[in-house]
Amino acid sequence: MAQNVTAAFVDLFDSEVKQAYQAESILRGTMRTRTGVAGNTVKFPKIGKGVATIRVPQTDVTPLNVTYAQVTATMSDYIAAEYSDIFQQSHINFDERSELVQVVSKSIARRMDQLCIDALVGNAGTTVATSIGGATTNMNIEKLRATAKAMNAKNVPSEGRYLLMHASQLDAMLGETEITNQDFATVKALVRGEVNAFMGFNILTMGDRDEGGVPKPSTRSCFAWHKDAMGYAESMSQKTEVNYVPEKTSFLVSSMFSAGSVAIDTDGIVQINCTE
Hints:
flat, 4-stranded mixed β-sheet, 6 helices
């Protein structure tokens, strides 16, 4: 049962319930995705490359000897659930079950993101140090340039690049002239305080999260990756249910999914360390 629901009795609160600010999933869809996986694991193939050679008439063809490798994502099961007591529901003038559907669904969506973040940690092929752009600095143009340079040097495709940062890094970026000046960037940074694309990266901003969020062991660890460098798989896509449990005279509102995430190609992953 929702422990604090008695605090929402009619004589105490307005009928318009305002949920606590909750973030929804922003990373699902930014990676190579498999759904409907049968079993507890899924393998993502990683295909190597080769160098073309001159064709000499009447000689054997020289094979590329392409290497093949696989990485495995292991499924984990997650659920977010809460009871809605029918007696307590009679004392409040809003639909608690509808509100709880939103709460549990968003909880699962945030867990999806955390699966992806946890798979990024420790798998970057390149690390951009905090000293780039000045000693112990936050996110800046120089760090973004260094990140793009690292990817370009490894021939990472320009389409499908993503960069995840904390709200602190967004604030630092909004202090950069090249980002906010209309001669360099879009009007969104000026008018709405948003930076959703810059230097070829689709920029994703995340605030503090109870699940962990953007890692900060000491300095903040932001990540850039190419869509094909990461894998995300689901054996059970998110579903939300409301079921009546007679023994508890309550409805059980639950949302659940089963998924896993894994790094496929470290060449397409860059960690950007920032001091806040």
